[in-house]
Amino acid sequence: MAETFGPLPAEQHQYEDLPKLSQAQLHQRRELVFLLLAGVFLGTLAMLNIIGVTRFLDLSFTVPLINWKVPMPVAVGVLPYPITFLCTDFICELYGKKRANAMVLVGLVLNAWVIFILWLGGALPGIEHPGHPGAYSHLQKAAFGAVSASMIAYIIAQLVDVHMFHFWKKLTKGKHLWLRNNGSTVVSQLVDTIAVILITHYWAGLLPIHDKASVASQLMTFITAGYVFKLVMALADTVPFYIGVKHLSRYLRLPPPA
Description:
By secondary structure, the protein is mainly alpha-helical. The protein has helices at 9-13, 23-51, 81-95, 97-123, 135-171, 177-204, 215-236, 238-252; strands spanning 56-58, 61-63, 68-70, 73-75.
């Protein structure tokens, strides 16, 4: 929506109830908000890739009346993941496709940096803690697998998210904000979930798969559980996204969302 950062007259006139801003003030506001959104995105990305698949949570629940237990094994790294898609959608809406894609690519470089530091920490001579022998090696192995899997899935899913966001925006002629927010995230998170589960199992071998049960059914359970969790979180962020875009558009003097 705002690839350039000058206080265009049309934008200023839409908010006559607000104080006029100089070009320097407007630029500073827009850059600060972008830095905040990008910082949350990249910080969350680094955190979830480090904790990744170090632990799986059992979020299983029982459906009332029919007494049907729904299995929900979810990697701890999935918990903050929906925030990255919310940040991507904010930047798509407020700053445009070019900046959103740039942030996604920076995230890829950040992943590579995390892998390098993890490798360096294991390559240099160290002093093992007597009470936790091999603790770093275990973290390093899990993080290597998680980061490698997520790097591939992440770049595909985030680029799909940005593309789908602008596809829906163009298709609806800039209207129906809820559609481009949810439509882009629903598709991209499905792509991400399938990719990261399959890569984590077949390449890194880090999923808690039981030998006595069908591998295919277990993988489907992990994919379904991860996707349902992300989908619920994506739908839940619709209201914050609407509120955030409305107030940020005023704060940044951008055209109001359709």
